[in-house]
Specification:
2 copies of one chain form a homodimer. Chain A has 462 residues and is α+β, with helices and mostly antiparallel strands. Chain A has 16 helices and 15 strands. Chain A has 2 domains: 160 residues, Creatinase/prolidase N-terminal domain (Creatine Amidinohydrolase, Chain A, domain 1), CATH 3.40.350; 292 residues, Creatinase/methionine aminopeptidase superfamily (Creatine Amidinohydrolase, Alpha-Beta Complex). The longest helix of chain A has 24 residues. The radius of gyration of chain A is 24 Å and the shape is globular.
Chain lengths: 462, 462
């Protein structure tokens, strides 16, 4: 936990922004895999962590703004439970560390909330776990199907406005997470060689994340099929000559995430063709980074990166025509189907559960619905204190190539005859994490090999 | 997946046992950690796996016994989804591999079930994930609070009667899981030394499980506080002289579990005192194994192990009086608070979600409610084909020692003055997995070092 003052100050800001209402913060419970009591690793709700730092299951926190009340609801273990689990920090002590003065048993929560509901609005954020949906339905007497709809937009906006600006102590945590993430990548580059299965390497990467005190921040992508964006490690054996795309991240024991991608050859060196595509992605990556600063719309950075990719693809004879027109038309999305990056913090896609319209966009800048831009999670103007990822890529997706070739889609900009030969090339992505500073941006984590030469040198260092 | 015939035969047996009704098998969905789409590793429901072998999220299976209908409900990915995930096996092909002839879109499930409900009973097993509770509540129009109560006891009993008798192909899978589990233990014995954190070792163990093609079968216990039974790996550093208790297991890619425990010194050798307690547990362990055979009540094996522990503790001057009377009174539960073992199969605590009254006990043998026996998950007579764990232990639990000493509880059997000196000793457990055979039992997995000498030799082999 951070110091008491941190949590008190965060809550004070939230209360002064919202001015009235009762705020309900459901902590997460344990989550069963194949029965109730065989659990996945516990993960606290990030907003709960942000305002309380209390990282245990089955607690709720409530703020009654007008009555200036803050209550942690939960149960201390019984003496018999302590026999099974050993000594635990009492809730009163955890609450005190967070500057929360009142602790009450969990069984009083429902009646407390129902009483509060009679006099004023009870606000809650969009629940994402079915267990929380069921609890809210029971506490607030709302049908299950209404729970999501009735979440509080003012509460969402107030939380986003706070959490999106990272404090120095948070940046330190993220720096630490990114360094563990970089250690995972170093291991992957040096060990993901022909004969190993993707899962073997993914398991080793998770071990590094756990050894760092936390866990993985999202399911590891370690794949020789990097052209598919949502592809996880399988029992496939890596073959010589494969490109390996590794997109992974660690989170610290406090829950702060790292998220990086490297793409490298399973062999000792990139082939000339792999190198050529890699350098296009790297050029787009570096070009995007140079433009990062407060006031810049990330959607524009995304489009800039897209235009750099198009320039490179034109150089290779895979695209043609006017670059700006190609990007405007969306022709680059044959190769770059997704967004350039996203917010990062206590969640790898920070505050994803609060909704992209609030986290990545604004009332005046709505998210596009067209292919490509609809997958851009962050579009709005950058502010000092944002932490974001920058992750351009080129993905030769055979399904998309076949489908669009059949439609002759973007024929003015795409040389399908040339593209056809890349259907088994794979995909390349390069991703790093940045803090937006007063005048630009700062790389988070210590630098990790990124150029072709540096990646090859690191790969072959053992 | 096993061959088509396996699943067809399993379902035929189930149908002939139940004779009528509509059986609902909810497959599990993805489970979000800190938002809906940041997932824990997918784990299919074990009963779903048992009857279909289909290991993907978001499918339901229904059997209408009287109409001789078997339907897999689910959705194939859209062409756009295939762009993101790559080629997947179509549901029709998966269904065919399981011998299921009909596939229908998920959106038709609710109306199918509601129509069926009008003519006859729709049976379902106790749901353990809140998402499944919500789905059943919506499909069958039952209030959330009623869903658990209305599950089908005949369906539970029929499933238990089948799943508790392991087929040869299942035993092979468990053997494989146990061997991966043994590899985890070998690593732990050789690497859990002073200076490492518990979590570092636990992460490495998980990597071995994942590298085996599946994952961990339950949260890893890797602790220097083995006296607390529900204690997971922490960021504590292991110290020289500590006893390390490692209780972990892998599951295969098909979902079959292993579950073993070893306790070993962080130093090169056990101390004389550690050795003395270890040998008592080992004696109880071996004595219990010798009695395993069909027809023996596991509750009696548990009590036999308890009496062997008491004999040993008497030899050390920690207990006194008549052994049988001590066990009958429950005095051994100061040191052995839990049960001797449990069923194992597609779940580490096999079929735990179906309820211990059905899995571990019978209509005529109810589970005891007294301290100690109430934690014995398996009490009933063993049958050929059962797979069970045997895991006696001695746990010097300071909270329990203090509490019972203050009450002078079991004063006729416990030498509290002597026990007092063991409050910082820790705990020792030895656990292996056995198949009940026609005439006895068979150890699953290749033998792993278990005696003091063998554990020390394996520890120091690197």
């Amino acid at each position: 936990m951070f110091s008491q003052e941190v949590y008190i100050a965060r809550r004070a800001t939230l209360k002064s922004n919202l001015k009235k209402g009762v705020l309900l913060f459901p902590g997460n419970g344990e989550s069963g895999m194949n029965c109730k009591d065989n659990w996945y690793p516990f993960r606290q709700d990030s907003t709960f962590l942000y305002y309380t730092g209390i990282n245990i299951p089955d607690v709720y926190f409530v703020i009654d703004i007008e009555n200036d009340e803050e209550i942690l609801f939960g149960n201390n273990p019984t003496p018999e439970e302590i026999v099974w689990i050993g000594a635990v920090t009492p809730l009163e002590e955890l609450a005190a560390k967070a500057g929360i003065k009142t602790v009450r048993p969990l069984k009083e929560l429902a009646s407390y909330v129902q009483k509060a509901q009679q006099r004023e609005a009870v606000h809650y954020l969009p629940p994402y776990r079915p267990a929380t949906v069921v609890q809210i339905c029971q506490f607030l007497n709302i049908p299950v199907s209404e729970v999501e709809k009735k979440c509080s937009v003012p509460f969402i906006k107030a939380v986003v406005a706070q959490r999106e600006i990272k404090e120095a102590i948070e940046v330190e945590q993220i720096h630490k997470a990114v360094n563990t993430t970089a250690a995972m990548h170093t291991y992957a580059m040096q060990n993901a060689v022909a004969g190993k299965t993707e899962k073997e390497i993914a398991g080793d990467l998770q071990a590094i994340a756990i050894g760092g005190g936390g866990n993985i921040s999202f399911p590891i992508i370690l794949t020789t099929n990097g052209q598919y964006l949502h592809n996880h490690a399988t029992e496939n054996k890596i073959k010589n000559g494969n490109l390996v795309l590794c997109d992974c991240g660690a989170e610290t024991s406090m829950g702060y995430a790292g998220d990086m991608t490297r793409t490298f050859p399973s062999a000792a060196r990139f082939t000339d063709l792999q190198k050529e595509v890699y350098n296009i992605v790297l050029y787009a990556h570096n070009s995007a980074i140079e433009t990062l600063e407060p006031g810049v719309r990330f959607k524009d950075v995304h489009l800039l990166a897209a235009s750099k990719l198009v320039e490179g693809l034109k150089g290779m004879g895979l695209m043609k025509g006017n670059t700006d027109e190609a990007v405007h038309a969306g022709a680059h999305t044959l190769f770059f189907q997704c967004g350039l990056g996203h917010m990062m913090g206590l969640d790898v896609h920070d505050m994803e559960n609060l909704g992209e319209p609030y986290v990545g966009y604004t009332d005046s800048l709505e998210k596009s619905t067209v292919f490509g831009l609809k997958s851009l999670r962050l579009g709005k103007e950058l502010q000092e204190g944002f932490v974001i990822t920058v992750e351009p890529g080129i993905y030769f997706n055979p399904f998309l190539i076949d489908a669009w070739k059949a439609q002759n889609k973007y024929a003015d900009f795409v040389n399908y005859a040339a593209v056809e030969k890349f259907k088994d090339f794979g995909g390349i992505r390069i991703e790093e994490d940045f803090l937006i500073t007063k005048n630009g941006s700062k790389l988070l984590g210590n630098p990790l090999a990124k150029t072709v030469d540096d990646v090859e040198a690191l790969k072959n260092a053992i």
